[in-house]
């Protein structure tokens, strides 16, 4: 159980293109989803927290107009990298947290999207 | 500032030995700590969670300790196997809520 599907797994596109990444919880309802970015040999860095039906909360230094997040349902969140540039090339990973009042529930991660901007 | 530090050096051990990975943190007062495994090009997979009032937690060949005085957690894999080769991440909840802050991870290589 607790499977998170992330799509696409890899994107290669030209500079200036907008790229949409989908994150789906397949067998549970995810009230909260998180988007992380990971550079080679670095830790996962939280970009934003996405709650179903409300605006995402962005971490300091993350441009909300650059990284558009939509959490339209309890099983789907999307991240759109608008007008992507080479410096946006990275490994983007989503995670989902199921319903529950306890903050210690583990998160379930997708398999990531490798974004390469030429 | 808050920091989560893991051994940056890769850990190479022989199959059958016990691997011990370290996670130290500063400027956190965590109620619990989590360990994840990450394989190349994949997302992290949850392994274990330990609460502040638990000194030790076990799951099959895995054992985690948590010392809130030392601000340290140790992660042990006993009878290690080549399939255990991966990067192991330590994670704490951010002060702002449910999001996780991760260490950089320690790469483990188990050789036959």
Describe the structure.
- By secondary structure, chain A is an all-beta fold.
- In chain A, 0% of the residues lie in helices and 53% in strands.
- Chain A is built from no helices and eleven strands.
- With 112 residues, chain B is an all-beta fold.
- Helix content of chain B is 0%, strand content 56%.
- Chain B has strands at residues 3-6, 11-14, 19-26, 32-38, 45-51, 56-59, 62-67, 72-77, 86-93, 100-102, 106-111.
- In chain B, strands 2, 4, 5, 9, 10 and 11 form a six-stranded mixed sheet that branches. Chain B has a five-stranded antiparallel sheet with strand order 1-3-8-7-6, with no helix packed on it.
- Classes of the chains: A mainly beta (118), B mainly beta (112).
- At the A-B interface, strand 9 and strand 10 of A face strand 4, strand 5 and strand 10 of B.
Topology record:
The complex is a heterodimer of chains A (about 120) and B (about 110).
Chain A: E1 4-7, E2 10-13, E3 19-25, E4 30-38, E5 45-51, E6 57-58, E7 67-73, E8 76-81, E9 90-98, E10 108-109, E11 113-117
Parallel strand pairs in A: 2-11
Antiparallel strand pairs in A: 1-3, 3-8, 4-5, 4-9, 5-6, 7-8, 9-10, 9-11
Chain B: E1 3-6, E2 11-14, E3 19-26, E4 32-38, E5 45-51, E6 56-59, E7 62-67, E8 72-77, E9 86-93, E10 100-102, E11 106-111
Parallel strand pairs in B: 2-11
Antiparallel strand pairs in B: 1-3, 3-8, 4-5, 4-9, 6-7, 7-8, 9-10, 9-11
Sum up the overall morphology of chain A in one term. globular
- Category by helix and strand content of chain A: mainly beta
For the sheet with most strands of chain A, the description reads:
7 strands, mixed
Cα Rg of chain B: 13 Å
Strand content of chain A: over 45%
The average pLDDT value of chain A, as a whole number, equals 90
């Amino acid at each position: 159980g607790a499977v998170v599907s992330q799509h696409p797994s890899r994107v290669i596109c030209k500079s200036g293109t907008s790229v949409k990444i989908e994150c789906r919880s397949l067998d549970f309802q995810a009230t909260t989803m998180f988007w992380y970015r990971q550079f080679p040999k670095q830790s996962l860095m939280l970009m934003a927290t996405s709650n179903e039906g409300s605006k995402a909360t962005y971490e300091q230094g993350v441009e909300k107009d650059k990284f558009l997040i939509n959490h339209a349902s309890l099983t789907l969140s999307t991240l759109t990298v608008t007008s992507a540039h080479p410096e946006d090339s990275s490994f983007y990973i989503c995670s989902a947290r199921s319903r529950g009042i306890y903050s210690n529930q583990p998160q379930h991660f997708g398999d990531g999207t490798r974004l390469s901007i030429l | 500032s808050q920091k989560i530090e893991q051994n940056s050096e890769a850990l190479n051990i022989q199959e059958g030995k016990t691997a011990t990975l370290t996670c130290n943190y500063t400027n956190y007062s965590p109620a619990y700590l989590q360990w994840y495994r990450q394989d190349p090009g994949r997302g992290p997979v949850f392994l274990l969670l330990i609460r502040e009032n638990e000194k030790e937690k076990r799951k099959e060949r895995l054992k985690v300790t948590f010392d809130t005085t030392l601000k340290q957690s140790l992660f042990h894999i006993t009878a290690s196997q080549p399939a255990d080769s991966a990067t192991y991440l330590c994670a704490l909840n951010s002060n702002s809520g449910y999001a996780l802050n991760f260490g950089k991870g320690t790469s483990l290589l188990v050789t036959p």
